[in-house]
Design a protein that fits this description.
Elements: H1 2-27, H2 33-44, E1 48-51, E2 56-58, H3 59-75, E3 83-87, H4 92-103, E4 107-110, H5 117-126, E5 131-135, E6 148-151, H6 161-164, E7 186-191, E8 201-205, H7 206-220, E9 227-230, H8 237-248, E10 253-256, H9 262-272, E11 276-280, H10 283-288, H11 295-298, E12 303-307, H12 311-321, E13 325-330, E14 339-340, E15 350-351, E16 362-366, E17 391-396, H13 414-419, E18 421-423, E19 431-441, E20 446-452, E21 457-459, E22 462-464, H14 466-474, E23 479-488, E24 495-503, H15 511-521, E25 530-533, H16 548-553, E26 564-568, E27 573-576, H17 579-587
Parallel strand pairs: 1-10, 3-4, 3-5, 4-7, 5-6, 9-10, 9-11, 11-12, 12-13, 24-25
Antiparallel strand pairs: 1-2, 7-8, 13-14, 15-20, 16-17, 17-19, 18-19, 19-20, 21-22, 23-24, 25-26, 26-27
Helix pairs in contact: 1-7, 2-3, 2-4, 3-4, 7-8
Length: about 600
C-alpha cells in the first residue's frame, strides 16, 4: 500500500507539472512558435541560449537571426503553407533557420543528414518541398528540381544562404510582415526512422511542438539554471524538440555537439557544466561499454530522460554514472500515446493511474501475431488485453480542445495517416491511434514494452519477443551489443531465432558459458538457434537496429563471412555452422 501511495504521489505531481506547463501552449491560439521565441528573448535577453565549439547564441541573437531568415523566405517568394527542406548537421544556426522559416508561416522538413539517393529523394517529394536549404558538406548527396540554397562555401555556383542572409534586417517583424498563423498550422515535418520501408513525414503543428517542449521540461523540472547536453540528431524529436525545449522554454541553455561520441560524452558534460541530457535507443549502452574515466563521476548531470533504455542496464547505468533521476518515457514523433516513468520503476515505461485515464486514454488491444490482426467478437468489436497479456498499445483519438494531447495530426501523406487509425474497435464510432508496439500491463497498471509488431515472431507455436531475448543475452559478461530476429527455416512454420552479437574478444569468448546462461534465462522456444558474431551492428542515426539485411541473409554461411554457430540441442553445445551443416539443416537431415 505504501509503495502504491508513493507511486500515485509521483505521478500526481509529475502529471500536474506537465498539464500546467502545456496549458500555456493552448491558451492563446494565435501565439505560435515564433511568438514564443520572441517572448523568451524579451525575458532572457543576453543570457546564453545555444552554443557549440564555433557558435554561441544568446536568446536575443537567436530571435534576431530568426527574423532575418523570415524576411529572406518572404523575399524568395515562399508563402504560408509552403514547405522548405532543411539538411544541415547539428549546430545553433540550424535552430535559427527553422525558427525563422516557421515564423514566416512555412513548414520545415527536418531531413535526415545520412540519407542519399532514393531515400533522400523520397523525403523531399513526400513533403512537396518548394525549396531546399543544405549545408555545403552535404551538397553532394542532393539531387532535386527544387531551388537549392547552400550554407557554406560551394564550387557549384548555387546561391549561398550564409551570404544572402546578411542583407536582411534582424529587427522585429512588422504586422504586415507576419502571416496569420494559429496553433494548428504545420510547423515542422519530422521523419520516422525508416527502419522498415521509406520514412514517413510526421506533421508537427505549432501546438504539438510547444506541448512537447514545455511538457518534457516540466517532466524533468528543468529551469533557467539547467544546461542541456544535446548530442542526438536535431532532425529527430528527441534531439530537435525535446532536448531543445528543455533549454529554451525555461530560460536555460544548451551545448550542441554535432554527433554523439561515447568517448567524449562525460568530458563534454564536465567542461560545459551540463545538468541534463536526453537519450535514445542504445546511447546508454554505448556509454556503459566505454572505458571508465574520472569525468564519468565528476559531472553535474542531475537527470536524463529518453526511451529505449533496457532493463538489463537501467540500474547499472545509474550506479556507475551517478545519475540520480533516469526518466524513461514512451512516445513517438507522430503519436498521441505518451507515458513517463515518474517513479523510476525498473523496466517500466510508465503507468496511467485510474484517476488520469480520462485525460490520457490508452489501452492494450488483444493481438493475434500469426494473423496480424486484432480478433473481433460476433458484434465486430475487439477485446482489451487482460493483466499481463500482451497486446498492442492504442491511444484514443479525440478532436476536442479540452484534450489537445489526444489529437493525431498525422503525416504529410494522407494514406499513411489513415493506415494508423483503427475505427469501431471497442464501441461504435471510436477512433484509435495504433502504435505498432506490443506491450503488457501488470496488475498495478505499469506498462512494459515487449516488441514492435513485425519484430515479434512465432516459433514452435510460441510468441518470441526479440527485445526480451536480447535483454537476456546482453546481461552475459563480454556481450557488448545484441540484436535478435527471426529467420526463415525451410520446412518449419514460423521463424527460427537468431542473434547477432558484438563481444569484447571473440577468440576468448566462452560459448559454453553463454549457452548455459541463455538456457537458464530463457524457455526453449525463445533461445536463439543461430548466433552470428559481428564487429559492429548497423543502426539508424537514433541507434535503432537495422534488422532487414540481417533477416534477408538468414543463416547461410555462403552469404555470411562472419563466424556462425548453430545451437545443437541434442549435443547441448554450439557447433560452427559450415556448408555441410547448413545443407543438413535446410534439407531436414538435421532437425531444428
Amino acid at each position: 500500500m505504501l509503495s502504491r501511495l508513493r507511486s500515485d504521489f509521483a505521478y500526481a505531481s509529475g502529471l500536474l507539472r506537465v498539464v500546467r506547463a502545456t496549458r500555456i501552449a493552448t491558451k492563446r491560439p494565435g501565439c505560435t512558435l515564433g511568438d514564443h521565441l520572441a517572448e523568451w528573448a524579451a525575458q532572457h535577453g543576453d543570457r546564453p541560449a545555444l552554443s557549440n565549439d564555433r557558435e554561441s547564441y544568446s536568446y536575443a541573437r537567436l530571435d534576431a537571426r530568426a527574423n532575418a531568415y523570415a524576411r529572406w523566405a518572404r523575399a524568395r517568394g515562399l508563402v504560408k503553407g509552403d514547405t522548405v527542406a532543411l539538411l544541415m548537421p547539428n549546430r545553433p544556426e540550424y535552430v535559427a533557420i527553422w525558427f525563422g522559416l516557421v515564423r514566416a508561416g512555412l513548414g520545415v522538413a527536418l531531413v535526415n543528414t545520412n540519407l542519399t539517393a532514393a531515400g533522400l529523394a523520397h523525403s523531399l517529394a513526400v513533403v512537396s518541398a518548394k525549396a531546399v536549404i543544405v549545408d555545403s558538406t552535404l551538397l553532394g548527396a542532393l539531387a532535386t528540381q527544387a531551388p537549392v540554397y547552400v550554407y557554406g562555401e560551394t564550387a557549384g555556383g548555387q546561391p549561398r544562404l550564409d551570404l544572402e542572409i546578411a542583407a536582411f534586417s534582424d529587427k522585429g517583424l512588422s504586422t504586415e510582415e507576419k502571416p496569420a498563423l494559429n496553433l494548428s498550422d504545420a510547423a515542422l515535418y519530422i521523419y520516422t526512422s525508416g527502419t522498415t520501408g521509406l520514412p514517413k513525414a510526421a506533421r508537427i503543428t505549432h501546438s504539438r511542438a510547444l506541448r512537447i517542449m514545455l511538457g518534457f521540461a516540466a517532466a524533468t523540472g528543468a529551469s533557467a539554471r539547467d544546461r542541456v547536453y544535446m548530442c542526438l540528431p536535431m532532425y529527430h524529436t528527441n534531439g530537435g524538440i525535446i532536448a531543445l525545449g528543455q533549454a529554451l522554454s525555461v530560460g536555460g541553455s544548451a551545448y550542441i555537439r554535432e554527433k554523439f561520441s561515447a568517448g567524449a560524452f562525460w568530458a563534454d558534460c564536465v567542461r560545459e557544466k551540463c545538468t541534463l541530457f536526453v537519450y535514445i535507443g542504445e546511447l546508454c549502452r554505448y556509454l556503459m561499454n566505454s572505458p571508465t574515466s574520472p569525468d564519468e563521476r565528476r559531472h553535474k548531470i542531475r537527470a536524463c530522460i529518453g526511451n529505449g533504455l533496457r532493463l538489463d542496464i537501467y540500474e547499472a547505468f545509474q550506479k556507475r554514472f551517478g545519475v540520480r533521476a533516469v526518466l524513461e518515457f514512451y512516445g513517438s514523433t507522430e503519436g498521441n500515446a505518451v507515458m513517463v516513468n515518474f517513479d523510476f520503476k525498473p523496466g517500466a515505461i510508465g503507468r496511467i493511474p485510474s484517476w488520469a485515464a480520462s485525460r490520457f486514454p490508452m489501452t492494450l488491444a488483444a493481438y493475434d501475431i500469426d494473423g496480424e490482426t486484432h480478433p473481433r467478437d460476433a458484434a465486430g468489436f475487439a477485446r482489451m488485453s487482460a493483466a499481463d497479456e500482451v497486446g498492442e498499445l492504442l491511444a484514443e483519438i479525440r478532436d476536442d480542445p479540452r484534450y489537445p494531447a489526444a489529437r493525431f495530426d498525422g503525416y504529410a501523406d494522407a494514406a499513411a495517416t489513415s493506415a494508423k487509425i483503427l475505427r469501431d474497435m471497442f464501441r461504435p464510432g471510436d477512433a484509435w491511434f495504433r502504435t505498432g508496439d506490443l506491450m503488457r500491463r501488470d496488475a498495478r497498471g505499469y506498462f512494459y514494452f515487449v516488441d514492435r509488431i513485425g519484430d515479434t515472431f512465432r516459433w514452435k507455436g510460441e510468441n518470441v519477443s526479440t527485445t526480451e531475448v536480447a535483454e537476456a543475452i546482453s546481461t552475459f559478461p563480454g556481450v557488448r551489443e545484441a540484436i535478435v530476429y527471426g529467420v526463415a527455416a525451410p520446412g518449419y512454420e514460423g521463424r527460427a531465432g537468431m542473434a547477432a552479437l558484438v563481444v569484447d574478444e571473440i577468440a576468448e569468448f566462452d560459448l559454453d558459458a553463454l549457452r548455459a546462461h541463455i538456457e537458464k534465462a530463457l524457455p526453449s522456444y525463445a533461445r536463439p538457434l543461430f548466433l552470428r558474431f559481428r564487429t559492429e551492428l548497423d543502426a539508424t542515426s537514433t541507434f535503432k537496429p537495422k534488422k532487414s539485411q540481417l533477416v534477408a541473409e538468414g543463416f547461410d554461411p555462403a552469404v555470411i563471412e562472419e563466424p556462425l554457430f548453430y545451437d545443437d540441442r541434442a549435443a547441448r553445445l554450439y557447433r560452427r555452422l559450415d556448408a555441410a551443416l547448413f545443407q543438413a539443416l535446410v534439407s531436414g537431415a538435421q532437425g531444428l
